[in-house]
Design a protein that fits this description.
Layout lengths: L1 H18 L1 E10 L15 H18 L19 E6 L2 H14 L6 E3 L5 E3 L11 E3 L18 H8 L5 H9 L1 H11 L13 H14 L11 H19 L9 H19 L6 E6 L1 H10 L18 E8 L13 E8 L10 E2 L9 E3 H8 L7 H8 L7 H19 L3 H27 L6 H5 L12
Parallel strand pairs: 1-6, 2-5, 2-6
Antiparallel strand pairs: 1-7, 3-4, 7-8, 8-9, 8-10
Helix pairs in contact: 2-3, 7-8, 9-10
Length: 468
């Protein structure tokens, strides 16, 4: 009897799990290991290629063939209409995207028979060509040591620069002078000695971090203890967080705002196509992770979300439903979203973890609530970006003129009087003009006004005497 009850309970649990269906997902992914920013142009290393390739293999096992397989997605041979892959114009990020895709959709051997009867086998064991679309967001980010350089957003740059005037920055810069001085020999003149300060905390950390991975020896290596390396990383985290997000001035997180708009757009595409669109993948820089973390209150879930993410880190947004799909694609009220994050390369032995968004406690939220919360700050089009960033040149010039015209029209409307008052003023002006003309006519022509009695007595209405 007990075994029957246990089997029944297990059957119910299995049925409950089976009822959940993943309809689509959006992955935002960092690049793999690369050469240091200070020695631009940066390049993806063999280690970096392997890291993102492994991540691609993991997401293949999750979304193409595993228990969380996206409903209706092609498992082996890619169907391009189901997939959207994006990366900025950046060698490291674009190459990372291609490495990831090779893990996601490995070679698929195909043989075609021509009309002549000849059989043609696809080269490279059937390597699948998947286009990586370029986007303007984050272009050249891996060649830039300044977090906001890739954003091109004027107001975001101003906001980030204000961090350097903050009390937090001043204290850290002052208290770490001796620490950074001790690191100077290890930098080995990659940057000048006077640049080895907290002001360049991430660049200094990046140089040492890359050297620790790839160099067999480093000058002044005895100084680089585990404690020193940890302090370098901690200071880099604090520096970049200060530049990426500020709760009282969120335009600093413009990269996260743009990502929010892209997530909403892709999720809406999944819904509007009733699941024909299935998997969106975008590669980007760590700054986008950090600014997005701040905007969705992830530091409330863990303080780890205030640091720079490791190479090949990924965050995922899953759109799923508990509804029965036999009746067709579910309505918006039956859709839910789940957020997952993994620091570093995801694999079957180290999978992403689910975290609650927006300071909540639930691991999933309704699609409607998710969309409403993101729309509080999401940038979804060029005009919104131009307005928030205060940019007025290039693509923004058209929106500036529109804004000025609207402002001028508004000012005109504010100054305009009502038709009733305008009529009174118009009548008064007309009367003044008529009277003025009459006086001038009488003066020039020698006319004068006389009463009816004077006319009866025969008083002349004009004078023919010459004027003095």
């Amino acid at each position: 009897m007990k075994s029957a009850v246990a089997l029944s309970a297990l059957s119910m649990l299995a049925a409950a799990e089976a009822a959940e269906t993943v309809l689509g997902a959006y992955i935002f992914h960092r690049h793999g290991d690369r050469t240091p920013k200070a020695l631009a142009p940066t390049n993806l290393t063999a280690l970096g290629y392997e890291q993102v390739y492994t991540s691609g293999q993991y997401y293949r096992s999750r979304y193409l063939s595993g228990d969380s397989k996206i409903h209706g997605i092609n498992e082996d041979e890619v169907k391009l209409s189901q997939l959207q892959v994006q990366a900025p114009v950046d060698n490291v990020l674009q190459n990372s995207a291609m490495a990831f895709l090779q893990g996601l959709y490995p070679p698929y051997q195909t043989v075609q028979t021509l009309a002549s009867g000849q059989s043609v086998t696809a080269p490279m064991d059937g390597y699948q060509l998947i286009p990586v679309n370029t986007i303007s967001t984050g272009s050249g980010s891996e060649d830039s040591g300044w977090l906001q350089d890739a954003s091109s957003c004027v107001n975001a740059e101003v906001s980030s620069n204000s961090f350097f005037n903050s009390e937090e920055y001043s204290k850290l810069a002052s208290n770490t002078e001796d620490f950074y001085s001790s690191i100077v020999p290890s930098i080995n003149r990659v940057i000048s000695d006077d640049e080895v300060t907290f002001k360049n905390a991430y660049i200094v950390y990046d140089i040492i971090h890359v050297a620790e991975i790839h160099n067999s020896s480093i000058p002044n290596e005895d100084v680089l203890t585990n404690s020193t390396l940890h302090q370098l990383q901690t200071l880099a985290h604090a520096h970049e967080w200060g530049l990426a997000y500020n709760a009282s001035d969120n335009i600093r997180a413009v990269a996260g705002m743009q990502l929010a708009g892209e997530i909403i757009s892709y999720m809406n595409a999944i819904i509007s196509t009733e699941g024909s669109t299935k998997l969106g993948i975008q590669f980007g820089a760590y700054a986008t992770f950090m600014s997005f973390f701040g905007l969705v209150d992830l530091p409330k879930a863990s303080t780890d979300f205030t640091g720079v993410v490791d190479y090949a880190s990924s965050m995922v947004f899953e759109l799923f439903t508990d509804s029965d799909l036999s009746a067709g694609f579910p309505g918006a009220d039956d859709l839910q979203v789940r957020f997952l994050f993994h620091n570093g390369t995801a694999s079957n032995s180290s999978e992403p973890t689910v975290f609650p968004l927006f300071g909540g406690s639930n691991n999933a939220m309704s699609w409607n609530d998710f969309q409403t919360n993101l729309n509080e700050f999401a940038i979804s089009n060029t005009e919104q970006w131009c307005t928030k960033c205060g940019n007025s040149t290039g693509a923004c010039a058209a929106y500036v003129s529109t804004t000025n015209d609207a402002s001028a029209q508004q000012n005109s409307n504010d100054d305009r009087v009502s038709p009733a008052i305008g009529g009174v003023i118009g009548a008064f002006v007309t009367l003044v003009v008529v009277l003025g003309s009459l006086v001038a006519f009488m003066f020039v022509g020698g006319f004068r006004l006389v009463s009816k009695e004077a006319l009866a007595r025969g008083v002349p209405t004009t004078s023919i005497e010459p004027k003095a």
